[in-house]
Amino acid sequence: MDSGLVGETGSGKTTLVNLLVRLFDPWEGQVTLGGVDVRQFSLEELREAVGFVSQESFLFSDPLRENLSYGRSNPPHEELEQVIETSQLVNDLPQFTHGLDTLIGERGMTLSGGQKQRVALARALLKRPQILVLDDALAHVDTYTEEQILQRLQASKGQRTTILIAHRTSTVASADLIVTLEDGAIAEIGTHEDLLGRDGVYSRFYRRQLVAEQLQEETQVVPPEDQEISS
Amino acid sequence: MVDRSEEEDPVGKVYDARLVRRMSGYVRPYWRPLAISVVLLTCVAGLEIVGPLIVRYAIDNQIAQGRTDRLGLLVALYLGSLAAIFLLRYGLTLLMIYIGQRVMMALRMALFSHLQRMSIAFFDRNPVGRLTTRLTNDVATLEMVISEGIIEIITNLMLVSVIAVALLVLDWRLALAMYVFLPFGIFTVRYFASAQREAHREQRAWLARINAFLNENISGMATVQLFNRQKENLHRFDGRNQGLLGASLRSIAAYAVFEPTVIMFNALTTATILWYGGGRVVQGALTLGTLVVFIQLMQRVYWPLRDLADRYTTMQQAMASSERIFSLLDEPEEIIDASSPRHLVDVKGKVEFRNVWFAYDEENWVLRDVSFVINPGEKVAIVGVTGAGKSTIISLLSRFYDVQRGTILVDDVPVDQIPQRELRRHVGIVLQDAFLFTDTVEENIRLRDSSITSAQVREAAHVIGADVFITQLPEAYSTLLAERGANLSVGQKQLLALTRVAAFNPEIVLVMDEATASIDPLTEAAIQRGIRQVTSGRTSIIIAHRLNTIRDVDWIVVMHQGQVAEVGTHKDLLVQRDIYYRLYKLQYDEQESFRTGG
């Protein structure tokens, strides 16, 4: 099942998923996984089961291949290729001078925000997690590529549960369940259609998105050809 | 933020003429104390010889002849020479430290004032940590060399040469017999020194690797834990840790064998002097006193030699540090005042953007052919979605960046022809998140500009309405603000930022008024009033998010994808029912729904 989490910055979305992987523990109440309190599992077991792609994708100063297999050493070649395809890194590979052996991170090749996020996504997918958490993980990826990735994730999901945190309502629109947060509390739960009908946090988000998107689509300007661009 | 300097290879040249020449430029103003030190140095080297010569005289002319009549005087002279050496060395050290510290102070000043001239683009590229390291660590390394290293090196070189000559004069045969060992001595010293240096270099390289590894793994700890990499990473750390251990042990081993070797050569030379010199004393060709002098002075040749080898690493580090310091000083200033600047007289406050194209990275245009004219005293709002280029307009008008094409004019003078100081004196910015310094409220308002009186500060605070909260602070205007104003609320900080600009009283005011959550309605109203006050009677550009502010302006520029999409009054633009209309609806919707508690 896919679920989406929507809310303003600071409404508690990231905190919620951090509790799931026990980066923090709640003061009260419990987070359960398959009906079992997450504190009952060993940390290793719990984190093995969850593929986590956070807002800030942290990559290490290692070759791309090592970064990808961070959660699973020596993955079969087909699987490596598959996650590179799913995360749409495949289009970027020609840019990497030494292919998968290109050094990235602080002391290596500088990746764009979108590329970093996609490496982080591929890294999490390679673990073959039962639960995939995407914490605003495609924010720096352009809308078209995001669409491509979401389609591929959908196609390859199998039994995987996905939790999507997003700023764009389009990212979560197709989720089975959408939860909106406001000031640390759940505001609404429902599907895209349900929530649009309620005129609450979600529909407000949706309208804002719509205007912004309409504005985005208009007028693409190209600098005049006859002048030198750089001074 | 990772400080790259930790990873930089610490090994450089021992002597780089170009760097030394530049450094000497900083030392030159202190040529007087430097000249005195050289004189003192020479005296020290000379006095080091005097002691043994007194001993020689005492042995040959007194003890050997069974006399004691002048022995008291000689002992007094001997002690006197030691006391003189003590005083001279004391003075010498003081002088050198004085020069070293002065030079370092000048370097830090040069670095800081250079940094202040750098463009904002430079700071976008360079992390704070790296720049601070230049001003502190690298300068400190150099200081060590100037005030300790150089003095030791020169003293030792001088001492060795003076002694070598003195021995030849005293008895050239014995001196030559002794020098036979010197090449072997020097060779061995150099051999072990280089072995030690190599091990030391390796040690530093491993240390740098450990630093980089720790840095990355600590900042990426969440990722490490989420991917269950603790064991694997511990293993990797172990590899580096073992590497450092090995290198450290090798370095110590080299050092351990070095000391006894020096002592052994010492003993060998002493033996030669005793054997050959002793024979000559018996033959009557040499006095007993001279023999004693030889043994004494010989000791003083070996230790300086050893010390010189030790200084090698320090010099390398110093060269690497000065290299980094000078390369920072050589960073070109990107935003420079025109060579024949034009001055603004009696500023009216007209602002014009004429076909401005701008990109932060010369690739992605942020502004595309932006043109508009704001007449003196007009209030204009800039609206648009995030990334439309609104804040860029403000950065460009203050000339934080230079435009690639087109011109920005203030009172019909292009901003790149106005001296930056002057331009920024006439263009005031109210930033969203005003930077507050660890200082009093009053100084945070006038930024230690003594031309603004306390009365003016209070007047500005009163006009803006900040005085209400300031007077309630424990010490009112003298209250010390914590770093970045941590002891103030967001709203209070904004009010201070408005007061700051009001106190400086510029003709043109730029206000960044982005939407901020978590501001209570009362503060909200206070800020709004402050904005109205600071913009009244001045040419104002407001990046507005509050509806009331937008309704308040004379006309509006609607930015869209780096272009001016629409221009007009609030009413006109609403009638057009295009971008502005939609933005307005959007914002209005939200602000209304917030107001009604939606």
Primary descriptors:
A: 231 residues, alpha/beta, 6-stranded mixed β-sheet, two-stranded antiparallel sheet, B: 598 residues, 20 helices, 64% helix, 10% strand
Find the count of extended strands of chain B (DSSP E, 2+ residues): 10
Query: Mean pLDDT across all residues of chain B, rounded?
Result: 81
Q: Encode the helix/strand succession of chain A as letters.
A: EHEEHEHHHEHEHEEHH
Structural class of chain B: alpha/beta
Based on helices, strands and strand pairing, what is the structural class of chain A? Answer: alpha/beta
**Number of beta strands of chain A:** 8
Radius of gyration of chain B: 36 Å
Count of alpha/pi helices of chain A: 9
Percent of residues in helices of chain B: 55-70%
Name the shape of chain A in a single word: globular
Estimate what percentage of residues of chain B fall within beta strands.
5-15%
Oligomer: heterodimer
How would you characterize the overall build of this protein?
The complex is a heterodimer of chains A (about 230) and B (about 600). Chain A has 9 helices and 8 strands. Chain A has about 230 residues and is of the alpha/beta class. Chain A has a 6-stranded mixed beta sheet, with helices on both faces. A two-stranded antiparallel sheet of chain A has the order 2-3. In chain A, helix 4 crosses helix 5 (about 115-125). Chain B is an alpha/beta fold. A 6-stranded mixed beta sheet of chain B has the order 6-7-8-3-9-10, with helices on both faces. Chain B has a 4-stranded antiparallel beta sheet with strand order 2-1-4-5, with helices on one face. In chain B, helix 2 runs parallel beside helix 5. The model of chain B is unreliable at about 1-10 and about 595-598 (pLDDT under 50).
